[in-house]
Amino acid sequence: MSYPVVDKEECIACGVCEGVCPADPNVFKVEDVSNVVNPDSCIACEACVNNCPVLCIKLED
């Protein structure tokens, strides 16, 4: 199963990933300048990848 990996040096903590994620519970939780990722909830829809304004999220196996 694929899961999102955030490049924390590139992440601007804008919250877009958290807002577009349809998984329940949400995969992302924005805290300060990075995202906490809950890969077990990921449904590999790529909404976070496709909507990240700084392209810092990739899906990995």
Automatic annotation (TrEMBL):
InterPro entries to which the protein is assigned, alphabetical: 4Fe4S_Fe-S-bd (IPR017896), 4Fe4S_Fe_S_CS (IPR017900)
PROSITE patterns according to UniProt: 4FE4S_FER_1, 4FE4S_FER_2
- Keyword field: Iron, Iron-sulfur, Metal-binding
Ranges of residues in domain 4Fe-4S ferredoxin-type: 2-33, 36-61
Q: Name one GO molecular function term.
A: iron-sulfur cluster binding
User: Which Pfam families did the record assign?
Assistant: Fer4_10
Protein's recorded name: 4Fe-4S ferredoxin
